[in-house]
Amino acid sequence: MGKYDKNAVSNLGSNRFTSRILFNYGLPFKAGKNWIDLYGSVRFFGKNRAYKGDYILRQKPLFGFEAHYSHDIAPKTWLGGGLIYGAGGSQRSNIPNGYGVQGQNSLKASAEFFFPAWKGASTFLSYNRTLVRPAGTPEVRTFILQFLHFVQFKKVKSYKKDPVGIMTNS
């Protein structure tokens, strides 16, 4: 487990690096009770030089744009929804007869819920599903559960400002 096997049909890893550059902008309004968050990103992929044996898998950059709206419903608790757009990311390999995967041009909708879990921690729940996609590409439905725990090793003045609300839960 945990080792890439170039002869296996399925692997947990992809045997290549990925790197994502993300830019975000948050716009609060109604005294900080509501937010509009905008994200732009590009994900780069390395080559897998041991794909299905000794073939090489290449993937073009994947571009993304997200827009989310959230509303505080209680202290440190919010509900939100958003749209997620992905474009690019087509895959090609040097397997004879040309294996390739069409790039994305998809739009997904998401619903999110964020609430305190215990002192110093919060929970993030999210569900998203595909609304629009090219023919022949998969429809995606994803459920995400995250626990965020803040560990403070040293008292720093900026820690007193806790915009997300994970340091001290009521």
Description:
The chain has 170 residues and is mainly β. The protein has a single domain (18-160), classed as Porin (Beta Barrel), CATH 2.40.160. It is 0% helix and 58% strand. It is built from no helices and eleven strands. Strand 1 (18-29) and strand 2 (34-45) form a beta hairpin. It is globular and about 60 Å long.
Annotate the secondary structure layout.
Layout: E1 18-29, E2 34-45, E3 48-51, E4 55-59, E5 62-74, E6 77-88, E7 91-93, E8 100-101, E9 104-118, E10 121-132, E11 141-149
Antiparallel strand pairs: 1-2, 2-5, 3-4, 4-7, 5-6, 6-9, 7-8, 9-10, 10-11
Structural key phrases:
single chain, 170 residues, mainly beta, Porin, 7-stranded antiparallel beta sheet, 4-stranded antiparallel beta sheet, 11 strands, globular
Sheet of most strands: 7 strands, antiparallel
Provide the residue-averaged pLDDT: 87
Give the termini separation.
Answer: 41 Å
Total domains, how many? 1
CATH architecture, by name, is Beta Barrel
Determine the structural class based on helices, strands and strand pairing. mainly beta
CATH-assigned fold name: Porin
Strand content is: over 45%
Compressed to H and E, one letter per element, the order equals EEEEEEEEEEE
Protein name: Capsule assembly protein Wzi
